[in-house]
Amino acid sequence: MLLINNGYVYDPLNKIDGEKVDIAIKDGKIVEESQINPLEAKVIDATNMIVMPGGIDVHTHISGYAINAGRRFRPEDGRRWLEPHTSIRRSGAGYSVPSTFVTGYRYAIMGYTMLCEPAMPPLLARHTHEELNDTPIVDTTAFTLLGNNWTVAQYIKRGEYERCAAFIAWMLRATKGYCIKMVNPGGVEAWAWRSNVKDLNDPVPYFDITPAELIRGLATVNEMLKLPHSIHVHTNQLGVPGNFEITIGSFDTIKDAKVSSIRGERKQSIHVTHAQFSAYGGDSWNNFESKADVIAKYVNNHPYVTIDMGQVIPGETTTMTADGPLEYNLHSLNNLKWINQGIELETGGGLVPFIYSRASPVNSVQWAIGLELALLIEDPFQVYLSTDHPNAGPFIRYPRIISWLMSKQSRESQLQKLHKRTSKRSLIGTIDREYNLYEIATITRAGQAVALEMSDTKGHLGVNADADVAIYDLDPNNLTPQKIEKAFSHAAYTIKDGEIVVKDGEVVSITQGKRFWVNPQVDEDLERMMLREIRRTFALFYTVTMPNFPVQEMYVPSSNEIKIDATYIS
Ligand SMILES: [Zn+2]
After folding, report:
1. By CB atoms within 10 Å of each CB, which of 69, 80, 450, 514 scores lowest?
2. Cα–chain-centroid distance for residue 535?
């Protein structure tokens, strides 16, 4: 039993904005204070501190073949940030591609308790889960890559949405995934043919299906299955000047799908991830400029859209994405080493080391775009803090982003260090908005919980929520950018499922988080018909047999299965 007394609580889902509310914890859950015997409970005195729900990261590459390739590919990165083992925790290392154990510790030290790995190739799902098992403390989930899948493309092309839904249901069950992830829909399949798709209506070789048809089709299937999260989309032509029109087009694609009518009150229907990389104007790197204002205006007028920032952090990092052609473009720009992989996995992937240089006009404007998105989108429930770790920067820099969002002065001093063209090619210098702690709690916790449809137990501190709590040594009446960054970098306490796992910025206890995955059930006859078809696909084209494909339960020891009744699909 725990009692957190006298802290300033920021809990947007319960509309608590800095009030002093005592939080009572019993058996891993938040409970009414009357259920706790104060004489038996351990009391945390949070005087002059802030209390928030545990942080949630909706998009961070922490596990599986891409990050693991990065660890092997960049031994120089692995020699930085060495952390020795203690009697409690294991050793680890790495700055942009940290090893699994320190990934869990570092997130917990920042007060985060739930992470989403956003790029799980179906054929390598086991590997993703094994590494998530080695990521301590935090709850986790993984998004299954399905935007360039052959079977999906064929079903949608033929208009067989019910069979496609049955296939997606089976895939999510087989890979123990949480949602439908799309990366450069259709474009990565085209990459296998040494090509890419130019826009939303450019057909994919052989399959003759367009990105727009794939996005609309999978959004429709997503709604048919009532999956908790929406489609999670990395847009086409990501990272390319002028791509903002494709991003707006991607949002528009689902306008006429039967999305909102099926979702009804559930407003979130498409999530565009690391939107900074998708908000570019100009038609070359010479006239490259921010179009964050256009994207933000669209988001402000369309409550069904959510995004995460993909905020650039000046400095060195490692880029990694399932978007094979994008990594080829990056490699062509900086001529650093390059991995191209995964094309045989019905997805693709690449890695390139990258330096976001303060002297570069392009990188400077990229820095501005992420912040502009967060500052121009009015409702913080529609925009979440991310760096697309490690693509735009490592997750350990989140506290710095918080200080930029909360302080115009902090942004100004960063802007002084960047290329002078930044203010001409973006609006960042003209924006006065400063986030308050309530809004920070929304973009780092509450918003993600709603978008993932986990807000019954996550992202808030009301009765029955999981007792995942972060306490920061930060007095809201005395805020400076330095104090903000320092406090959010090292939580005074992180509590996971009711247990104190971090104290004064140090890991003091190791727990194993839960793995969330969805298991939709469709009509049995429909599933049988679908299975008959894909058995043939497996026999003809796959290097694993079908019984070997699904991830066995032993790979998901702390499984938290979410059953969904979709048997009305027949
Ligand atoms: Zn990503």
Report:
1. 80
2. 32
pLDDT at 258: 58
Residue 307 CA, ligand 1 centroid: distance in Å: 12
How many Å lie between the centroid of ligand 1 and the Cα of residue 40? 45
**Nearest partner of 167 among 140, 190, 183, 144, judged by Cα:** 144
SS3 percent helix, strand, coil of the chain, rounded to 5, is: 40, 20, 40
CA torsion 116→118→124→130, rounded to 10°?
A: -20
The per-residue pLDDT for 265 is 52
Asked if the model's pLDDT at residue 263 lies above 80, the reply is no
Amino acid 86: pLDDT: 94
* Closest to 508 measured CA to CA, from 94, 26, 42, 95: 42
Among residues 249, 255, 250, 246, the alpha carbon closest in space to that of 232 is found at: 250
pLDDT digits 0-9 by tens, 161-189: 999 999 999 999 999 999 999 999 999 99
Give all strands (DSSP E) within 345-488, no chain letters: 349-356, 383-384, 469-472
Kindly compute the dihedral angle of the four CA atoms of residues 15, 19, 24, 25, in this order, to the nearest 10 degrees. 60
**Separation of 72 CA from ligand 1 center, angstroms?**
19
Q: Which tokens in the block code for residue 515?
A: 């793995």
pTM for the model? 0.97
Distances (CA, A) of 142 to 114, 175, 227: 11, 9, 14
Residue 44, classed as helix, strand or coil, is: strand
Residue 405 has pLDDT above 50, yes or no: yes
Residue pair 238/322 in contact by the 8 Å Cβ criterion: no
What pLDDT was estimated at residue 262?
Answer: 44
- Condensed to tens digits (0 to 9), the pLDDT of residues 36-79 reads 998 899 999 999 999 999 999 999 999 998 999 999 999 999 99
Distance 59 CA to ligand 1 centre (A): 6
H or E element: which one contains 73?
helix 65-73
Rounded to 5 degrees, what angle do the CA atoms 94, 99, 104 make? 110
Distance 367 CA to ligand 1 centre (A): 17
- The percent of residues in the chain predicted with pLDDT above 70, rounded, is 98
Say which residue, 345 or 134, is predicted with more confidence: 134
Q: How far is the CA of 323 from the centre of ligand 1 (A)?
A: 9
Quick one: DSSP state of residue 551?
A: P
* Helix, strand or coil, per DSSP, at residue 77: helix
Per-residue pLDDT at 347 = 86
